[in-house]
Amino acid sequence: MGDLPLNINIQEPRWDQSTFLGRARHFFTVTDPRNLLLSGEQLEASRNIVQNYRAGVATPGLTEDQLWRAKYVYDSAFHPDTGEKVVLIGRMSAQVPMNMTITGCMLTFYRKTPTVVFWQWVNQSFNAIVNYSNRSGDAPITVRQLGTAYVSATTGAVATALGLKSLTKRLPPLVGRFVPFAAVAAANCINIPLMRQRELQVGIPVTDEAGQRLGHSVTAAKQGIFQVVISRIGMAIPAMAIPPVIMNALEKKDFLKRRPWLGAPLQVGLVGFCLVFATPLCCALFPQRSSIHVTRLEPELRAQIQAQNPSIDVVYYNKGL
């Protein structure tokens, strides 16, 4: 056994999650794109460190900073409820590089219907992977259910984008630049609930403060999904609202008129800069381990909890990301 004490609570994030600043520091670490560069061996080594420590065995020579680093590497790649390794582009650390590319292209190629359809489909396909990968709970979902949810989510989102685009034909060009944002905001309201519909059917696990599972709640699932929708829309606002204003001004300058090929990479860069800050800050709007008062739960679950432990007033759940 190493010199590291075994009383460090790595079940919780390193920073106080009751404050926005603490959650922001946590999510700046979780969404760090550099985590994508870690090898499979590094991920497995971090998982072993975390699992051994939770079992009461500290790796010899391990420092507290190394333990927390291993925990965040582990959290960045493995689902908190199922323990399964999340597909690479479904990890929150992939949000910035993936979204800066996709969003930049959506904002650049917004004039023609075929390109609108293509990039909205790419975006919603990516979102579907992220939404499924970062769902709450460990309830199984069949391939058929997953396929139906994906087709419904992407079709609804693309149809929304086309509908909004058709409304802007007679409006100023600057307004047309904001169609991708409006479409993405509306699509999030469709994509997230559909890709996580299993949670709305069977509920998500709720626990006491110590982490003991008490049952499954659809009410908690609804609250968690609503919070994720708000966070995702907030995440898109800076990246899809600021660059269009800047690009609209730059495209009137001779510098960009003589170099039109710079438009797309410049837009992607602006989006990436916004996302580096917007992604963790909007993830931090709500605690990932959210809470709900027992009185707001379904009657059956409420009665079950009160029968088992009448002193419990609040239960906790993973809202997903």
TrEMBL record:
InterPro entries per UniProt: Mtc
Protein name, as recorded: Sidoreflexin
PANTHER family named among the record's database cross-references: SIDEROFLEXIN (PTHR11153), SIDEROFLEXIN-3 (PTHR11153:SF20)
Entry's transmembrane regions: 225-246, 266-286
One Gene Ontology molecular-function label: monoatomic ion transmembrane transporter activity
Role played: Mitochondrial serine transporter that mediates transport of serine into mitochondria, an important step of the one-carbon metabolism pathway. Mitochondrial serine is converted to glycine and formate, which then exits to the cytosol where it is used to generate the charged folates that serve as one-carbon donors.
Compartmental location: Mitochondrion membrane
Organism this protein belongs to: Mus caroli (Ryukyu mouse)
Principal location: mitochondrion
Keyword Hydrolase among record annotations: no
Lipid metabolism among keywords: no
